[in-house]
Structure formats: C-alpha cells, structure tokens
C-alpha cells in the first residue's frame, strides 16, 4: 500500500472480502520473503524523495523537452542508485530487475539509459575477455561512459548474417577500420544511440587477411567525452518519432573509414592477433549472439511485470467503476461483477503468474547453461536458444494482447494516457518485434523441434522439455482426455507432438515430390510456427503447474486454494481456446468441452471475491503504476479531475487560436 488517502469504499469492501494472506502470495511471486523485503527496501530508498513527480506530465512536452526531462530524471535515478541503493544492497544488485522496475516510477515511457544497462553492459560482461572487462566494465558501471547496442541496420534486423557494416583489420596500425558502405548499412534503431551514448557495441562483418569471418562485436567510441561532439568519421542522430520508446533516443549511425584499436574487438569468443591472424574459440558458432539470448530471457519477466501493472490498474478500476443495472431500479453493479469482465481480467492475472514463474525457471536454466559453458560444455545451448526464443515470442505476444484487453476493460478512461495503459501497450508491443521478431523466433524453435522429433523417431532419449516426443512414439492413437491438470498438460504435449509430426511429414512429402529441402521447409513454415507455438504453450502450462505445486507446498490453505484456482483457470482457458486441436489430437468429447466451459465459469465465480487481493499481491507501488485509474486508494474520478488541472490547454479560459482563427471564420460571410 502506498496511498495515505481515504480508500474508496468499494475497494475497501473488496479488501475485506479477500480470504487469503496477500503477503504470502507476494513472497511466492517475488521468489521468497527475503527478496520481497529487499525489493521494498530498494523501493523505499529510491522513491522516497518523490523525484518521479513531473510538474507537467511528460505527455504534454515537446520531443526536445521530453528527452531532456528523461535525461534529467535518469541522472537523478542513477545518483540515487549509485549513492544510496547500492550502498545498502551491494553492487551485486546492479543488474537486478528490481532496479529496472523501480525506475518505472521515474519514466512513463523509457529511460535513455536503458540500453546502456540492458545491452551495452551485458555485452561487455558476456563478450569481452577478463582483461577487456577490467578496462571497460568499471567505467560503464560507473556511467563514466554511456553505451548503446548497435546491431540492426536500415536494411537488416532479423538476418544478422546480412549486416553490411564492415570492420577491416589493418595490421600496420593494429586497428580496425569501420565502414558503412551503403545507405542500408547504416545502423538504425539502437536505443540511447541518437543523443545520449558516447560509446556503443557495434556488430560488423569482420575482415582480416582478405577474408570475411562473419559478424563480430566491437566497442566503439562515437562522441567526444568532453564536448559530446560526434568524432570525425562518425555520423549519428535520432531516427524520429515512434509509437513508443520516444524517450529512448533510438538512433542511426554510419562510419566513414573510422579507426578503432584492435583491442576494441570483443574477444571472448574469437580473436584477431596483432598480425591479423583470426583465432576462433571453437566452442559454438553462435556465441556472439549471447547478449540477445540474455535479453530474451529477461523479457519473459518484463512481460509478466508489465501485464501485472496493466491488470492491477484494470481490476482496481473495475471494482470502483459502476455501470448499467442488472434488474430495473437495482443499484448499478461494479463492472467487476460482470462475468464477461472477469473473463477479460482473471486470465491476465493468471498469465502474469504463469510468466513470472516461467521467467524464474528460465533464468535458472540460463544460469545453469552459462555455468556449463564456463566449463567448455555447449551441449545445452541449443535447447536454451529454442526455449528462450519461443518463450520470448509467446510471452511478449500474449502480454501485448492482454494489456490491450485490460485497456478495453477500462472503457473510455482506459484510452486516457493518464491511465498509463496506452504507454504500457506501446512499450510492450515493441517487445514482440525487437530482440527477434515473433515469427522469426518461433521458426528458430521449430528447427530445434524438428531435430528433436527426428532423434525421438530414431529411438534416442531427447532433452526434458521435449521428452513428450519420446512418449509420442510409444503410444498409439489419440491421447485419452483427462480433465486433471496433469491430464490437460499431457494433451497439450500431444497436440505439440502431433503438430511437429505433421510438419515433418509435410517437409518429407514435399521433398519426395521433388522440392529441395529449403523450399520444403519454406512451404511448411506456417505449420512450423504453429507447432512451435503449441510446444511453447505446453512448456508454459507445465512449468506454471509444476511451480505452483512446488511453491505452495508449505502455504496456508487459502493461499493454496486461490493459486490453484488461478492455475486451473489458466489450464481451462487454454483448453477452451484450443478445442479444435484437442478434438484432433485427443479423445475429448463435446460433453467434455461443455464440462470444461462450466468449470471455467465456476472458477470465475470462485476467484471473484479475491480479485482485488490478487492484484494487491503484485505489490506494485502507486509511483510505479503511474495511473489515474489504478491507484491503491481507488480515487479514480478525483485523480482524473486533478489531471485536468495539469493540462496546459486549460491554463487560460480562452485559447489564443480563438482570436486568430475561429473568430475570423465565424465572422466571415459565405
Ligand atoms: C550505477 C548506475 C545505475 C543506474 C540505475 C539503473 C538501474 C537499472 C538496472 C537494471 C538493468 C536490468 C536490465 C534489464 C533489461 C530488461 C529490459 C531490456 C529492455 C531492452 C530493450 C531492448 C531494445 C532492443 C534491442 C534489440 O532489438 S537488439 C537487436 C536484436 N536483434 C535480433 O534479435 C535479431 C534476430 N535475429 C537472430 O537472432 C538471427 O539472425 C537468427 C537467429 C534469426 C538467424 O541467425 P543465423 O542466420 O545466423 O542463423 P541460422 O538461422 O542459420 O541458424 C544457424 C544455427 O544457429 C542456431 N542459433 C541461432 N541463433 C542462436 C543463438 N542465439 N544461440 C544459439 N544458437 C543459435 C540456430 O538454431 C541454428 O542451429 P541449427 O543449425 O542447429 O538448427
Ligand atoms: C522499439 C525498438 C527498439 C529497438 N532497439 C534496438 C537496439 O537497441 N539495437 C538494435 O540493434 N536493434 C534494435 N531494434 C531493432 C529490432 O531488433 C529489429 O527491428 C527486429 O529484430 C526485427 O527486425 P527487422 O526490423 O529487420 O524486421 P524484418 O526482419 O524486416 O521483419 C519484417 C517482417 O518480415 C518477417 N520475416 C523476416 N524474416 C523472416 C524469415 N526468415 N521468415 C519468415 N518471416 C520473416 C517478420 O516476421 C516480419 O513480419 C529495435 C526495434 C524496436 C522496434
């Protein structure tokens, strides 16, 4: 709770109705009581200065004012983090998602420092040797240098091998010469690059001794540290207004034979020696893509957090908002009482839980794979790549759709920027594209699935996340429908196995009828995306259920009950969404589907009294929510009115345009 105002009576009633211990659920979502306490401590220190409050809301500012304001607040926040938060929590908390999320109290949109922290620093950690890290990391962590991640070009984002920027080694001077040979080779999109960064990670085609060795990463200084002027040979600027990310100064960058020292190549996975000899660390061809894998992993948690924000706003608002009448003359119901509203919102609560628990599980998988790679074992990397790709794709896509659903659930007021829902949508919809487009990433997962299918077909035991493929070859016919959580999960795995099997059959049939492998694959990609989506859905369902069982073992009865209701709602919702698939791949009958529908509607009724408690359990402070509709105290109408007072258009009773344009128009003769 963050508000000291009187609580709206409807919300107060909702909280009285809640029958479970809210803190217990918060601890589960945060990963334990210690983590919750640590988070609260960080939030207390970082937010108690009230630095986040803008006199004029940022949406009223011009592009230049907005950017300057974002820089001002980024510096305030950075100083708080450096001087106060990390003092208490220790430097190891530097990259903590808690810091990133607390930062949302300062920005409705995004900090221009985000890419420095989210990708430049991780690229130094993941792609540099220990010696290089010693040179760059302390300066970057201390914000002595500010970086961006410049990979995408005007002509290519998805197809990294097609990037055109070149880095040609010159052994005479022991330097790389960076060059942008075409208009399409200009770097485009990098966050923080346009106005803020003085350094960046540049991804370029490495040439040495006359041979191209593919894309590699380089640390490049682009601006003078004193004057901030672009250095000679560097052309840099901002790309222009966007749907969101408007305070992130996404930029363009071109080089004209611009020289950097040899040691500015990030050399953890490959090196160029002084004489120009190329030495490859022969472990895995795609280790230079590591920063993207890291960010994809973190984005699953981001999807959960942003959805949790949206549904907190929408559920609280739905408890306060009253509309229509159920019977003539009766009191108007809270809109949260409409089953259709519950149908829109409770799946969002469940999805935020599913993604949060999946994100933690994925993070553990990521760190385990990292540990193996440190020992030289890269065997688990393909599975991590397949998992992080599809989980990034689905979590960002679902979060986008559900945030929009939360906005719809708030009617007209949800369309106001002050609700924060449009900002959340514009921010999250970009995650479906950046760091790997939705379709492209699912096709990466599909490659892995087809290979796993072939292994299972030849009798090999496959890795745990696709172990259901082994079962597919030992069972005959359709999966027996079973309404238990485990039963539903098994059926979803059978759907995935069935779809992968169809893809393999299609590819083989096409090859048999004369197509080459590439065309056969291409013609099957619609099915492959579908199969990868089904696989990923089964992974999420399985992980969510397993984690709830594990994490609620010692919970109080009511917490166990409500979290079980949510996970059952999630399983049932997806079963109903996919009845076509279930009819095709399992023995489910029409009667079973009717039962599922009834079970779903009963779950809505059961969850209803705890809905506000459930969003309170996300424990997102008002400063972070930044919403007129979603604050803890439910003073929705008062806040909407207060916001009107901040509108510069209301400063004067008569707008100057009246005298300039309207009046002459009104006076003019036809
Ligand atoms: C003191 C100061 C304190 C300040 C206080 C502030 C505190 C806050 C601190 C908090 C910080 C926390 C940070 C959290 C951050 C969270 C939010 C971050 C927000 C970030 C915003 C990001 C903005 C966006 C950035 C970008 O978009 S960057 C650009 C991203 N680009 C892409 O993703 C491109 C997508 N394309 C690809 O990945 C590839 O091209 C491709 C995979 C599609 C194809 O590649 P390629 O053609 O080379 O490969 P093939 O298809 O031929 O496949 C060959 C085989 O290689 C395998 N493969 C492919 N990729 C990988 C991989 N990555 N890993 C492993 N293997 C891989 C394929 O599977 C193939 O294998 P096979 O042959 O066996 O099948
Ligand atoms: C807000 C935002 C911030 C960004 N920040 C950064 C940054 O900091 N640094 C950076 O380097 N980049 C950044 N990017 C760029 C981002 O990574 C790319 O836009 C993204 O990877 C998609 O690539 P693209 O734009 O080339 O899309 P395209 O690849 O051109 O995609 C267009 C369409 O073609 C389809 N398509 C493409 N290839 C295939 C294929 N092989 N099979 C089937 N369909 C295909 C896609 O599915 C999509 O529908 C950012 C982008 C945005 C929107």
Automatic annotation (TrEMBL):
Residue span, Acyl-CoA oxidase C-alpha1 domain: 289-450
Acyl-CoA oxidase C-terminal domain: residues covered: 485-667
Example GO BP: fatty acid beta-oxidation using acyl-CoA oxidase
Record-annotated active site: 435 (proton acceptor)
Pfam hit, one: ACOX
Keyword Oxidoreductase recorded: yes
Family annotation (InterPro entries): ACOX_C_alpha1, Acyl-CoA_ox_N, Acyl-CoA_Oxase/DH_mid-dom_sf, Acyl-CoA_oxidase, Acyl-CoA_oxidase_C, AcylCo_DH-like_C, AcylCoA_DH/ox_N_sf, AcylCoA_DH/oxidase_NM_dom_sf
Pathways per UniProt: Lipid metabolism; peroxisomal fatty acid beta-oxidation
Gene Ontology annotations for the cellular component aspect, listed alphabetically: peroxisome
Subcellular location field: Peroxisome
Record-listed FAD binding positions: 152, 191
The UniProt record lists the keyword Coiled coil: no
Molecular-function GO terms, alphabetical: acyl-CoA oxidase activity; FAD binding; fatty acid binding
Primary residence: other
Cofactor(s) of this protein: FAD
Keywords (A to Z) from UniProt: FAD, Fatty acid metabolism, Flavoprotein, Lipid metabolism, Oxidoreductase, Peroxisome
Domain Acyl-coenzyme A oxidase N-terminal: start-end pairs: 21-146
Protein family per UniProt: Belongs to the acyl-CoA oxidase family.
PANTHER family: ELECTRON TRANSPORT OXIDOREDUCTASE, PEROXISOMAL ACYL-COENZYME A OXIDASE 1
The name this protein goes by in its record: Acyl-coenzyme A oxidase
Protein species of origin: Euphydryas editha
């Amino acid at each position: 709770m963050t508000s000291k105002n009187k609580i709206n009576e409807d919300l107060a009633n909702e909280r009285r109705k809640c029958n479970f211990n809210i803190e217990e659920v918060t601890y589960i979502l945060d990963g334990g009581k210690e983590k919750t306490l640590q988070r609260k401590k960080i939030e207390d220190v970082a937010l108690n200065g009230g630095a986040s409050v803008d006199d004029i809301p940022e949406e009223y500012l011009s592009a230049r004012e907005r950017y300057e304001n974002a820089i001002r607040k980024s510096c305030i926040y950075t100083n708080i983090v450096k001087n106060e938060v990390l003092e208490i929590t220790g430097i190891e908390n530097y990259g903590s998602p808690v810091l990133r999320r607390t930062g949302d109290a300062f920005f409705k949109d995004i900090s221009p420092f985000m890419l420095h922290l989210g990708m430049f620093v991780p690229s130094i950690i993941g792609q540099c040797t220990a010696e290089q890290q010693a040179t760059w990391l302390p300066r970057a962590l201390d914000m002595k240098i500010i970086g961006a991640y410049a990979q995408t070009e005007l002509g290519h984002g998805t197809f990294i091998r097609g990037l055109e920027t070149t880095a040609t080694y010159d052994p005479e001077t022991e330097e790389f010469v960076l060059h942008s040979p075409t208009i399409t080779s200009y770097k485009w999109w990098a966050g923080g690059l346009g106005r803020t960064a003085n350094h960046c990670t540049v991804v370029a085609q490495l040439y040495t001794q006359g041979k191209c060795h593919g894309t590699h990463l380089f640390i490049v200084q682009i601006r003078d540290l004193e004057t901030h002027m672009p250095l000679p040979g560097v052309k840099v600027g901002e790309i222009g207004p966007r749907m969101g990310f408007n305070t992130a100064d996404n930029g363009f960058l071109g080089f004209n034979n611009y020289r950097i020292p040899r040691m500015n190549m990030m050399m953890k996975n490959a090196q160029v020696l002084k004489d120009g000899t190329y030495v490859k660390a022969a472990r895995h061809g795609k280790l230079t893509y590591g920063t993207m894998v890291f960010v994809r992993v973190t984005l699953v948690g981001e999807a959960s957090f942003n959805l949790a924000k949206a549904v907190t706003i929408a559920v609280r608002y739905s408890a306060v908002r009253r509309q229509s009448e159920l019977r003539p003359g009766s009191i108007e119901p809270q809109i949260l009482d409409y089953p259709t509203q519950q149908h829109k919102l409770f799946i969002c609560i469940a999805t935020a839980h599913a993604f949060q628990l999946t994100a933690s599980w994925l993070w553990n998988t990521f760190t385990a794979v990292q540990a193996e790679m440190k020992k030289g074992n890269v065997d688990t990397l393909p599975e991590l790549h397949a998992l992080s790709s599809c989980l990034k794709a689905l979590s960002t896509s679902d979060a986008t759709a559900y945030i929009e659903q939360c906005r719809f659930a708030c009617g007209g007021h949800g369309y106001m920027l002050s609700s924060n829902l449009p900002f959340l949508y514009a921010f999250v919809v970009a995650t479906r594209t950046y760091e790997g487009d939705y379709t492209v990433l699912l096709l990466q997962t599909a490659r892995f699935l087809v290979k796993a299918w072939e292994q299972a077909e030849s009798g090999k035991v496959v890795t745990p996340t696709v172990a259901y493929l082994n079962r597919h070859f030992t069972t005959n016919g359709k999966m027996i429908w079973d309404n238990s959580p485990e039963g539903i999960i098994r059926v979803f795995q059978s759907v995935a196995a069935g779809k992968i099997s169809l893809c393999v059959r299609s590819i083989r049939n096409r090859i048999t009828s004369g197509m080459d492998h590439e065309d056969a694959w291409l013609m099957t990609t619609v099915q492959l995306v579908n199969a990868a989506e089904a696989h990923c859905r089964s992974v999420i369902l399985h992980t969510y259920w397993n984690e709830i069982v594990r994490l609620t073992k010692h919970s109080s009865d009511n917490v166990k009950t409500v979290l079980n209701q949510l996970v059952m709602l999630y399983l049932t919702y997806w079963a109903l969404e996919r009845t076509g698939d279930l009819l095709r791949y399992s023995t489910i009958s029409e009667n079973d589907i009717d039962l599922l529908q009834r079970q779903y509607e009963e779950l809505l009724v059961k969850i209803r009294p705890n809905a506000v408690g459930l969003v309170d359990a996300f424990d997102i402070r008002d400063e972070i929510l930044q919403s007129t509709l979603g604050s803890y105290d439910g003073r929705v109408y008062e806040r909407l009115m207060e916001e009107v007072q901040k509108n510069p258009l209301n400063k004067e009773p008569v707008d100057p345009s009246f005298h300039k344009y309207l009046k002459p128009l009104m006076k003019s003769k036809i």
